[in-house]
């Protein structure tokens, strides 16, 4: 491991100052420490923020929810407000990683985690995300687990977070605090597609700190859930996944929120699926025709063509689970 300096921030201003000087934030350490061991990340300074007061889960005035950045995955999944208002978030968290990692990893760290692409994590392989301009070994290599949506000539790595898919479906907001004050960024804008700069993955500046994730108030009753399809049933990243939230009133779908994971360079919102659902009555045929739109624009690679059909089936199945039929 490359030598580094460790410092522990006693409060938020101290953390921001250290981050502005080039320090890398660490809370649970479940991602950054691995990357440092592998020689992929080589920060000069690591700033421990685990003691900061960012651990609250608070209902907002209009019926939304604010989850502090340092709430652990396990704490968020088990929190009564999360389970009652947004079960899709609890389910996504419970299907992530292992129990030991969920007890350590923070919500803020989860959405900041970097890809599990094996070429990114191999310092001997060409990777534009790790070394801009080096090329992308995945495009001509074994790419079964890579993206079919949102890829570029520079990068085809998938975003690996499960809960970020739920956040994308619900249209969550990332709350930031930095040297220039507070910002709120929709998660769809916070997580950046690779385009020509895959090494820049997040809309976050030097010294900026994630303070919370805010889930908006949505019409009630709201049925929601998360489905993850993977090669094995534990401690595995998604081949495909689907986060679905539906508000059905008077037998008609009034609000639909749908996103997919395991198939995109970021959690992939599915507006065409949502638009097809709104104003319609739940039925088996509706779920099938809506889900057929989930792979619109897909560009599969040599080894992941199966993801196109798997994505459609995953979305259809989760629509049936959440929405049922008349």
UniProtKB/TrEMBL annotation:
GO molecular function: FAD binding; oxidoreductase activity
Alphabetized UniProt keyword annotations: Oxidoreductase
Record flagged with keyword S-adenosyl-L-methionine: no
Family annotation (Gene3D superfamilies): 3.30.465.10, CO dehydrogenase flavoprotein, C-terminal domain (3.30.390.50), Uridine Diphospho-n-acetylenolpyruvylglucosamine Reductase, domain 2 (3.30.43.10)
Signal peptide: none
SUPFAM superfamilies: CO dehydrogenase flavoprotein C-terminal domain-like, FAD-binding/transporter-associated domain-like
Residue intervals of the FAD-binding PCMH-type domain: 1-220
Keyword Oxidoreductase: yes
Domain of life from the UniProt record: Bacteria
Protein name per UniProt: Xanthine dehydrogenase family protein subunit M
